[in-house]
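tool_call: predict_structure(chain=1)
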Amino acid sequence: MTSPTPLGTTVPGPGTRRAGHPRTGIISNSRSHRNRTRGAEAAVVPADTPNLLYRGPRTHPALAQALREFRDAGIELLVVDGGDGTVRDVLTCAQEVFGDALPRLAVVPSGKTNALALDLGIPSDWTVQDALDAGAHGGVRARASVEILRGDATRPELCGFLFGAGAFVRATELAQRTHKAGAFNSFAVGISLFWGVAQTMFGGQANQWRAGEPMRLQLDGGTPVDKTFYILFSSTLERLPLRLKPFGHERAGLKMLAVDAPPARLSRAVPALLRGSEAAWLEQAGYRRHDVRSFTVTLEGGFILDGELYDGGTITVRQGRPLQFVTP
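tool_result:
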């Protein structure tokens, strides 16, 4: 039996790769939740694995340098070992480095939230070695990313999968508090959802949750609408944690939920929305779903992309090109 080699160096190998294993680059976030709790033994692969490059960058410049090295080495598979935030950072940088030649991707769900991995059907205990095996023998699923462009830019500033504004920002802050209390993934989503709805339902008229946020929203280049929204939520994922269906039936593409402020008939609307009801009364009450290629929103408050808060302003949210993810 060969001894494992810690992921932290380039693993040497012969000039031709071992049959079945693609040339692979691994980006690992040592600060992600599971990697911290499992310790160094989690990040190991067999020492005889050829054509394997590993980097654990801690800054954005270091990440860019690592990806350039992967590109120059001609990798065929890019493994991201981390949570949704790590995937966002890697994809954002990789789109710039690789352009249209982005290799296949694999996600090892090691973060506090792993919504993309859940959508792709990746087991919660998947390892780097499992990702390598899937790169050789597994399936492939396509998912388009959510791209964020600021102002008149033509290239995306950010690439992720879950966008939100308005009450979504406060709900994310709640989720981060549940992480500190030891709640993660679907459990954290459930707690945050419960408290967010409670704050909205039982708060007074001046309650921040109910008041919403003024925004200018333009769908697919149509007529801009100035309105106060309770929440904007958008994603290209098909399956969300807890089997929630705020966009209705599961489907591909960029989907959006826009809820007027203050939200009406909340005690009835929330259960209906989350189970995917497409009853006509929901739209009449100000709960509107849209399938779009892009939308532009101007907001003073910030927005969330995959758990991170960014400054507001005028941004365009659009569906990116399909990315290929290896799966079990």
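agent: The chain has a mean pLDDT of 84. Proceeding to next step.
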